[in-house]
Amino acid sequence: MRSLTKLPPEREAALSGLYAAATGAARRRTLAGFALVAVLAVLAGLVAEVRPLIFAENIGKFTAYIRQILPPVGLDHPVADLREWYWGLSGWLALLGETLLMAYLGTLLGGLAGFVLSFAGSANLMRSRVLRLLTTRFLEICRTVPDIVFALIFVIAFGLGPMVGVLAIAIHTTGALGKLFSEVVENIDMRPVEGLSAAGATWVETVRFAVLPQVLSNFASYGLLRFEINVRGAAVLGFVGAGGIGQEFLGAIRNFYYADVSAILVLIILTVFCIDLATEQVRHRLIGPENPR
Amino acid sequence: MSAARTGNLRAEARDNLARLRGRYPAQFRVDWAARARFGLGLGVLIGLAALACWRLDVSAARILNGLGRLGSFAVLMLPPSPEGHLWTFLHALGETLGIAFLGTLTAAILAFPVAFLAARNVVSNPFAHFAVRRGLDVMRSVDVLIWALIWINVVGLGPFAGALAIACSDFGALGKLFSEAVETCDRRPSEGVVASGGSSLHRIRFGLIPGVLPVLASQVLYFFESNTRSATIIGIVGAGGIGQYLTELIRVLELQQVAFLVLMILVTVAAIDWVSTRLRRALIGPAAR
To answer: CB under 8 Å to A70, separation ≥6 — which residues?
Structure first.
């Protein structure tokens, strides 16, 4: 093995000095970043009334709570225990079905609205600046106000029940999907559009034959992703009286029916898992393995 | 002139339709199988929607009825005004931001080491990373509001429970995203570290972390953004922040104040979005958003 050629000492000193300066600067920046985050964290902690002592004191309560909601299924007669744990299964399944339908209808309605608005909100298809700005602002408002806030207001206007959940989900979904859809539309290949307008097609015909074929699979994939999110959302919309399994769950937590809490929670988690898996399968098939996202 | 010309072209094409059909049979062929599939899909979608409408008691009459009331609400909302509670609202908004910040930070700090355990290219034992991943999945599928309800039992009502709730549910989500980032990381630096005699810890520190850190930071910022939204609603179950006031004021129909609160939320979220988009660009370059 050949020995390394040594640099002349004055050159080595200069180079190592430069190296130290460079790493020192990077290190100082990192430290400053950490310090900033730490200061912000302390401020946030003060504002958010973080009390570590109470946390340390009561962490036992958390484990105790988890222990209490653990399913009362013993090894002696597991089937009977299981049946007792899930005493309200048929009712819960009906409520769960209601939740799923809420998510479905809300996603469908919101998706349709977002579909229509996305073309009006994309820069390459909509010439009128005013209309485009109005559309994007409207979508932004729909998206930023959480669906549960819409549900709170709608419960007063429409009365209790799952319809409120559907409308709340639909409005929030309009905003979320409208934005994603118009991003897809803005990224299309414009040549088919130019071809159709050159052949004298109207705006609607252009959208139908030049834009739709390019975007439909992506739209469907985003729609499914949103459905997945909405199932989670619909499960908690019941907290404010918008129907579905959430109401039952809130009741179980508030009334300390520990076994019911875990039973419903497991049901919800399983449903969400299944929906996740199913939509992922369909999405992969829709957008193909060459474009996974 | 061009309109007249294209009109002529169209009329001409219509007149010679039969000849066109004969000349380009492939273009005019009707794909019945595809149409049947499409029709079936559409039928299923509409059928499910009809079922949903029937089961959920959605009817045009109810919607119209409610819309009328919503219209009067919209009038009552104008003009938005805090009616003297500006400082209370600002404090609540600060609380909300604090909840989001602390929650995201805690989740990120906890998720960082766990993500390496869940990454296939760090822990080669399939059972280990499978177990870690499913654990993260369970944390993630429990909604923030449910976590908040659980933590309220432990630390009492207030923003602290909210921060813990966000930390818990984001721990799952961030852990999953982080581990995916680690798995898609460039292999060559870590191979280089191993080839020059580094231990597996060296490999993680010098081969993986420099590559994934910008991605992780950008994801954390993104989550902070979305958490400011979640933190606004977490007060609905009593876990602090602006949601508490929002719920109360909606219940008592103080709609002017409600409108003011919603505007405050919109402005704050827009500001946070703007700042974090800037920061993210600085972190990972202009290509990524």
So the answer is: A262
CB–CB contact A250 B73 (8 Å): no
- Give B-chain residues touching A54 at CB under 8 angstroms: 155-156, 160
pLDDT for A18-43, tens place per residue? Answer: 888 888 888 888 899 889 889 988 88
A152·B159 Cβ contact <8 A: no
The alpha-carbon radius of gyration of chain B (Å, integer) is: 28
| Rounded mean pLDDT, B10-36 | 82
Among A123-127, A217-221, B88-92, whose mean pLDDT is lowest? A123-127
Residues B160/B240, Cβ–Cβ less than 8 Å = yes
- Å between A74 CA and nearest CA of chain B: 23
Distance CA A79, CA A57 (A): 38
For residue range A152-177, list pLDDT tens digits in order.
888 888 888 888 889 999 999 999 99
Exposed (0-12), middle (13-18) or buried (19+): which is A32, by Cβ within 10 Å?
exposed
A144 touches chain B (CB under 8 A): yes
pLDDT above 80 (res A127): no
CB contact under 8 A, B233 and A50: no
User: What is residue B83's DSSP assignment?
Assistant: T
What is chain A written as a DSSP string?
Answer: -PPPPPPPHHHHHHHHHHHHHHHHHHHHHHHHHHHHHHHHHHHHHHHTT--HHHHHHHHHHHHHHHHHHS----SSSHHHHHHHHTTTHHHHHHHHHHHHHHHHHHHHHHHHHHHHHHHHT-TTT---HHHHHHHHHHHHHHHHS-HHHHHHHHHHHH-SSHHHHHHHHHHHHHHHHHHHHHHHHHTS-SHHHHHHHHTT--HHHHIIIIIHHHHHHHHHHHHHHHHHHHHHHHHHHGGGT--SHHHHHHHHHHTT-HHHHHHHHHHHHHHHHHHHHHHHHHHHHHH-TTS--
| A133 touches B: beta carbon within 8 Å | no
Is the minimum CB–CB distance between B209 and chain A shorter than 8 Å? Answer: no
Average pLDDT over residues B251-280: 86
- Using pLDDT thresholds of 50, 70 and 90, give the confidence band for residue B107: very high
The answer, yes or no, to whether residue A292 has pLDDT greater than 50, is: no
Judged against a pLDDT cut of 80, whether residue A71 lies above it is answered with no
Determine the average pLDDT of the residues in A249-265: 85
CA B126 to chain centre: 29
- Under 8 Å CB pairs connecting chains A and B tally to 174
